[in-house]
Structures are given as structure tokens and as C-alpha cells.
Specification:
The complex is a heterodimer.
Chain A: E1 11-15, E2 21-28, H1 32-40, H2 42-45, E3 55-61, E4 68-74, E5 80-91, E6 95-102, E7 116-125, E8 128-137, H3 140-152, H4 162-170
Antiparallel strand pairs in A: 1-2, 2-8, 3-4, 4-5, 5-6, 6-7, 7-8
Chain B: H1 2-6, H2 12-19, H3 22-31, E1 36-37, H4 38-42, H5 49-61, E2 65-70, E3 73-78, H6 80-111
Antiparallel strand pairs in B: 1-3, 2-3
Helix pairs in contact in B: 2-5, 3-5
Amino acid sequence: VEGNVTPDLRFDFVASDDNHTITVKREFAAKRQLVWDCHTKSELLDQWFAPKGLTTQTKHMDFREGGYWHYAMITPDNQKFWNRLDYKKIQPIDGYTAKDGFCDETGTVNANMPSADWDVSFSDLNEHTLVTTIVQYGSSDALQSALNMGLKDGLASTLERLDELLPQLLAS
Amino acid sequence: MISRMANQKVSLDFVFHALADPTRRAVVQRLSQGPATVSELAAPFDMALPSFVKHISVLEKSCLIVSRKHGRVRTCSLDHQNFADAEEWFGELRTQWASRYDKLDSLLTHLSGGKRDA
């Protein structure tokens, strides 16, 4: 298992009440404004957004309602996977909603690939910040192909052992 | 792993539905410790038996659990292979988010000038 820098910070990952919905909650040891900036400024997003082993590179960022973030996740052998996050509603520094989809280098969304709706909210947790992301997939097929591609693209790394993952899956 | 995904037996629809309900999550958690009869599983819940049996039925349809009837007693157990497959799906996504957020922790520490609680 990868070492978490701050193992005492809350991290929940659960299938929630609606079908095809995953809710991710994570506590960060920083003030809300800074955590918000890290989610909404491309020069900061580029420093963390892609999972471990990949880097993030922004091609276009227009963080406003109706605008979008067009970026690539890049493998060590320089293979690029293009994504696009279209912003719908933005309420600084409380939250935003967006549509997450796969696209090509020009930003043209591939309608045959799975997309998901994101609802991201930020709240104070004492001196820390809690970020809640609700990811709603259009269908189970969309979620399944998203995962299949994740595996194919080499994003797969360590799979948690059954007994480690069980409490996370079953947490209310 | 890819070929295993292609031959997936578990329907994600059912898995989501199955795990979205607190009663069903509790049943799965109990069965992870070993088989149990329907009455044993129902005991902790303040719920009419027919309603509880519907939850069991949802879990069976999701292929997460199997049940066998001996006489008048129905015993349920976790289908470990299917449960592991379902977990692998969730586990993969979870790993991606955990990994992404670990990187954000490092960035936040850096931006805060190295202080943990800035």
C-alpha cells in the first residue's frame, strides 16, 4: 500500500444512495481558500490532478460557468490521455458542478466514451477543509468502461487487499 | 485482468443498488465473517421478515451472496469471488482518488510553506 503523507486525514469512498454514484470525501490540512485554488487554477491543478505515475498538462483553462478545462494526463512514455471538464455552476469557494468527459487533443468530446457529472463541495472542518465529490455516471456501462480504460491505460497500481478495502466499501 | 473484466459476471447495476442500502451493507459485512441463516441476519433489524427477505433477494440478484435451503432454514453466504470482482472495480477507482489526493496533500504542504496546519 502506498504511504499516505498524512494518514490521519479523513478519506471516505462509498457507493451512495443513487445508482451509479460514488461519493468521495477527503479532509485536507489547509484552509478552504487554498484548497479551492488548487482545484480551480490550472497552474496548481497541473501539479497534482493526475494519479501517481502520471503528470497533468493543461491546454486550456477557463474557470467560469460555461467554460472548461482541457488537459492531458501523460504517462512516463509520453502517451497522452485527453480529458475535458465543462463547468456548469460555480460558487466560490463553496463548490462547483461540472461534466467530466474524454476528448481528443483539439478538445472535441468523444460521445462514445463514458462521461460523468461532478458535484464538488468545500466546507470548513475546524482549521482543515473537507472536499466532497459526488461522481454520477450516466449508466453502469459508462462506469464499467471508465474502469476498463483506467486499467488499460496503466492507471492500475496496487489493489487493496480484501480486508483493507472492506470497511471503506461498507462504511455508511 | 482485462480478460477477467470482459468475462465479468457481476452486474455493476446490481452491485451499486445492493451496496447503496445500509441494511444490505450490514448484511454483507456480517456475511464477510461467515455464513448465517436468514433469521440470524434479520435479528439485529427492527423490520418485518418479508421486508428483510427482499433485501436478501436483492443481494442474491447482485451475485454478492448465495443462499441454500435445508428444510425450513435458509443459510446465506458471501460469494467471495464475485465480491472480490466487485471490490476490484471500486478499488481501482478508489486507488486513483487516493493517489491524486496524496499528491494534493504534498502540494498544500508546499504552498503553506511546509507547515502542516497552515
